[in-house]
Amino acid sequence: ITEIFIPKSVKIIKDFAFSCCYDLQKVEFAKDSELEFIGKNSFSQTSIHTIDIPKNVTTIDDDAFSYSRLQEINFDENSKLKFIKSGAFSGISLLRSIKIPKHVQSIGCFAFGNCSGLAEVTFEKNCELKKLENSAFRCTAVNRITIPKHVEEINEFTFSECNKLEEIKFEEPS
């Protein structure tokens, strides 16, 4: 398969649903999608270039898009996303930037690890992020980042091997 349309009624995409569908280049969700959960490895190792995550998704589970060909990840401005789990977007070398939605509370271990081209990470205004897990941005090309004011925990190796990292700021008041 090269393209798939996910209808409004789908609320959960289970683990490994489209994993290793190497020719899958396009995933489109219904405009008023009710999708809430994207399971483990559900789109890993696909050739998807752009993904528009529906607003009702609250969790992107472990390795959901790992080692895919994503170049662009878009979140609805009213995104309800709370959890970006371990390795969710790991190993995506073509990804250059990401804007984390406001309601995200934690970014899991290695969530963006080995995204070697990822140079820009920004957070929506008043982001509710509390926790950056181990190696969340390890081995990326991030050069500057501003940590949201609600962050309480930055774990081991979060920015390890980020050889281009020049500046880390903390949003006021922290």
Distance between the termini: 47 Å
Oligomer: single chain
Strand order of the largest sheet: 2-4-6-8-10-12-14
Sheet/helix structural class: mainly beta
Residues in helix, % = under 10%
Instruction: Indicate the radius of gyration in whole angstroms.
Output: 15 Å
What overall form do the CA principal axes indicate? Answer: globular
**Count the strands?**
15
- The proportion of strand residues reads 25-35%
How much is the average pLDDT? 97
- How is the main sheet built? 7 strands, parallel
If helices are DSSP runs of H or I spanning 4 or more residues, what is the number of helices?
0
What is the H/E order?
EEEEEEEEEEEEEEE
Give start-end ranges of low-pLDDT stretches.
Answer: none
Report on the structure:
The protein is mostly beta strands and 174 residues long. Helices cover 0% and strands 26% of the residues. The protein has no helices and 15 strands. The chain has strands at 3-6, 12-13, 26-29, 37-38, 50-53, 59-60, 72-75, 83-84, 97-100, 106-107, 120-123, 131-132, 144-147, 153-154, 167-170. A 7-stranded parallel beta sheet has the order 2-4-6-8-10-12-14, with no helix packed on it. A two-stranded parallel ribbon has the order 1-3. A two-stranded parallel sheet has the order 5-7. It starts with a strand and ends with a strand. The model has no long low-confidence stretch (mean pLDDT 97).
